[in-house]
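Posted in: Structural Biology > Protein-Ligand Complexes

Title: Requesting predicted complex, iron/sulfur cluster in pocket

I'd be grateful if someone could produce the 3D structure tokens for the following input. Sequence and ligand are given below.
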Amino acid sequence: MTRRIIGPFNRVEGDLEITLDIDGGVVREARVNASLYRGFEQILLGRPALDAISITPRICGICSVSQSVATVAALADAFAIKPAPNGQLGINLIHGAENLADHLTHFYLFFMPDFARPVYSNKPWFAEVERRFAAKTGLGAQAWLVARARLLHVTGILAGKWPHTLAVQPGGLTHAPDDGELMHLRSILADVRDFLQNTVFGTTLERIVELDRRPALDDAIEASLAAAGDFGLFGAVARDLSLENLGLGYDRFMSFGAYHGEGGALFAPGIMDGGAPLALDPNVFSEDPSHAWLMGDVAHPLDGETLPYADRVDAYTWCKAPRVEGRPVEVGAVARQLIADQPLIRDLIGKGPANVFARVIARLLESARIVLAMEDWAARLQAHASVCVETGGADQTSGIGVGLVEAARGSLGHWLRVENGLIQHYQIIAPTTWNFSPRDKHGQPGPLEFALQNTPVDDDEPTPASVQHVVRSFDPCMVCTVH
Amino acid sequence: MTFNILWLQAGSCGGCTMAALTAQDRGMLAALKPFDVNVLWHPALSLESGQEAVAILQNVLDGKVVVDALCVEGSVLRGPHGSGKFQMMPGTERSMAAWIKDLAQQARYVIAVGTCSAFGGLPMAGGNPTDACGLQYEGDAAGGLLGREFVSKEGMPVINVAGCAPHPDWITETLSLLAAGRLTRERLDVRARPRFFADHLAHHGCSRNEYYEFKASASQFSQLGCMMENMGCKATQAVGDCNLRSWNGAKGGCPDAGFPCIACTSPGFETPKGSFQETSKRAGIPVGLPVDMPKAWFMALAALSKSATPKRVLNNAASDHVVVPPARENES
Ligand code: SF4
Ligand code: SF4
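-- Reply #1 --
Done. Output follows.
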């Protein structure tokens, strides 16, 4: 048995170190260290309730709107405020823009460059992958950054600065678009659609969202390859490297449900356990600090606290281990689309675990679905209807609130209690807290730790490419993980 | 000559990098192209991971590679008890604080990207649980990680591209000026922020300036009026050309999009008097008045302009879209 410590693990958002115990050319055990602690839950205590809207987005620069939306959902829950429906459409638009930006940034900048590593230089697809995806010089990434900036104009129009806008408030959105801006939004979305159709997929979004079975996916990948789509190129690489056999996780998934509106969530909430759908019940959540440099014992997020204790025995990360009825779950696009009953993802996963291939396909497929949803929201957004309800009448001095939303990387929850107008309690469980959690007190590994087991590694590679594919397939956001 | 950039993320949210990727609608690397910039290593953009990345940093420490610009994003976390353990550089058993301190000695210029690395930023709020500080400031006090006397190899203090997150162009324009050899000490303000953006107040160019003139104020989100009187807007006291530039291709900074300026370019912004979204007042008068305006004059002018407020401005201020369009008295 040899031990290898890998870090700094880059092209993930934030700080990550992985310890691998390797034997016989495969990973036997993995331990994940989220190595940065900033203390946001401590910082929030004692502040006026609405200050959370300025503080929590700064947990994360890549999913700052998700943090806003979660904070605001928790505050609105605590104070019984319902946002203006027209404002909710605007919030969905900026949240959708951020999530789409995150998905494709992951694909072009974080995940794909690993296939342009020298270890793959004798592969038939290498030259093309290098041309499209090489870190810093890939033409695909360059094209994406131009499209990304254009996409974020949606945020510019509706929310001004990004990251760290304060445009999302319990009553709704702070800026009411005018007639002209509504049309401008639609022009931007047309460009975004063009980028996805011409550059990512090489086919229409309608065709992508209708994929329902593996054979249809294989056909779409072939068609995309023929049209020089990056989706097709990924498909070819994935087939050659059998990425569907890599990074097998637990067979339990969770989603809080994404993009709320008057008709409920666009992607439904729930839990999927070995192929069996279960209702989502946040009362059975717990966080277990037994392997974190933190104080305390297993507790529900409304009871638990986050206080550093650097000398804790057996600790190897700043991250707690959140569990559902004591069990780990995987979150993210693959969980969201599975639970939303998207047939292709159902077919790819069956009753079993996700894998590197399915995680990436789910993210790309969801990207297509987000664009279609954004087109719909933009068409329904009104210039002359209120975007923000008056909240002055609501009692904002005390309450308990829970905000459960989906960020790009999965389920994000905020739990808070306000007394005399001040925050008395605040706990956050971010998507990567679920996915990259450490062992719990029963020794159960977190989802990534589990998924890394049995990964084949080459002795000559200090930072094995296979391990990097597995880790990045989760699209980790380490700054959110511990916060 | 190639201009080498080394970028590290200390106790950051990664938002400065995310902003930089929108610079000039094509991203930082494309925007810096004419300046022959080379990125030695960047946590979000480089291929190298693990030992390959550590080797790059070690080469710099050993003097084998010249770093022209060391960019640091995020607060330096010195705790617990001075150990720096709140942020160890993964794979190295050394704190990020120690790495930055050593690398800074090797750099021609050191750039604090964002308010966290400039002044300490948000992690300093709430009693500063991680003992966070900036590279050369701790809040408004000079010092921080590197000390008030620190100058980099070119004799410059840490250059503070403040903002949470900073405007992407502040980052790329600062780096371009350095690469072109055109950023001198005189072109930095009293807190070492480049003057090309710090010579302005965030209030300049806000679309609500006419409401400000007449003290026609918003009292609820989404209303069009000025947010200084009730909603905590500090843009008359915060530096930055935020509202003179477009942000993400459309609105200016914050007030233009309907929420108050929280002075994110300033040290101590993370701990406002009172709350972020409400104006602190004493005897009905905002505590924070415009930087350089005598209180008596402000009061007198406010009273005068309030008495002269056109109906249009008054009505529109309390509405979420224009209800009274501009027209001459005899046209309406
Ligand atoms: S809202 Fe703020 S920035 Fe705009 S005019 Fe009023 S004080 Fe100035
Ligand atoms: S307007 Fe104020 S809060 Fe907004 S970016 Fe500028 S200085 Fe920061």
